[in-house]
Specification:
alpha+beta; 27% helix; 3 helices; 101 residues; 5 strands
Length: 101
């Protein structure tokens, strides 16, 4: 897992879950924005989504590990929306970053 720079994001990271959906594993990236929105991509499964954290939970997202934990929790439970992301303009940067893994 590594931290990345996404304009406007408070925290952004990319990681590989190493689940074998593809020869590359499962490469993901996510960004957490000041409006409590989290945008994420799973480039190997072709999934992109977003969700908004409540204020109490958002105050606990300090770093890339916290971000990854929240993304995997929401993604695994299907607690996200697609498409029409609030920060859609950052999606290409997230996708490109995840593909670098």
């Amino acid at each position: 897992m590594s931290r990345i720079h996404i304009p406007g994001a408070a925290v952004a990271a990319r990681w590989n879950t190493h689940r074998r959906y593809d020869i590359a594993g499962r490469r993901m990236a996510a960004a957490f924005f000041p409006d409590r929105t989290v945008l994420f991509v799973d480039v190997d499964r072709g999934i992109e989504g977003w969700f908004r954290l409540d204020a109490d939970l958002a105050s606990l997202v300090y770093d890339d590990q916290d971000l990854r934990a929240e993304v995997m929790r929401c993604y695994g439970r299907g607690d996200y929306r697609e498409p029409n992301h609030p920060h859609y303009d950052t999606l290409p940067a997230l996708q490109a970053s995840a593909k670098e893994l």
